[in-house]
UniProtKB/TrEMBL annotation:
TM region positions: 23-42, 48-69, 90-108, 114-131
Keywords: Membrane, Transmembrane, Transmembrane helix
Name of the molecule in the record: Major facilitator superfamily MFS_1
Coiled-coil stretches noted in the UniProt entry, renumbered to this chain: none
Organism: Micromonospora lupini str. Lupac 08
InterPro entries: MFS_trans_sf
Length: 154
């Protein structure tokens, strides 16, 4: 958890400078090659290479969490924030469950290397929905931490 502070600080700074969508796209494009390092490196995978690639991927996951939570708090009216956060928590838990089931299925039928390829490809392409959404052009005002600021879009 020592890297949680850099993720939070860089998430806030970059989202103020580039906007929420653009900052997630920038980090996604920068980190996408790191998620493909593990299946591309031969066997056995060097520990340092795997650790550095994994650290970059985890940084991106944490960065996205900080930026998307700030965005969600900014655009959601305060009276709905609990419902929105609860609904998304259920959806994320379901996505983790589906991901684990997919990994188990692919791993059982095609082997662990193929399961690693599927997981890494998903991590490398996670930024594509934001690229195709209107969020990529939206920014937050100077009051990035203020909940319910739907009128603050620029």
């Amino acid at each position: 958890m020592a890297d949680s502070y850099p993720r939070a600080l860089s998430g806030e700074r970059l989202s103020r400078r580039l906007g929420c969508g653009r900052s997630i796209l920038a980090i996604g494009l920068a980190v996408a090659p790191a998620s493909l390092v593990v299946p591309l490196v031969g066997q056995p995978i060097p520990g340092l290479v795997a650790a550095l690639a994994w650290a970059m991927v985890i940084f991106k996951v944490g960065f996205d969490g900080v930026v998307l939570m700030s965005f969600r708090q900014h655009v959601t009216p305060p009276r709905l924030l609990g419902r929105v956060n609860g609904t998304l928590r259920v959806m994320f838990s379901g996505a983790l469950t589906l991901g684990a089931a997919t990994a188990a299925f692919v791993g059982a039928h095609a082997g662990p290397r193929a399961a690693t390829w599927v997981a890494c490809a998903a991590l490398a392409l996670v930024w594509v929905p934001i690229l195709r959404s209107p969020m990529r052009r939206q920014t937050l005002g100077a009051d990035i931490g203020r909940p319910g600021g739907i009128d603050r879009f620029r």
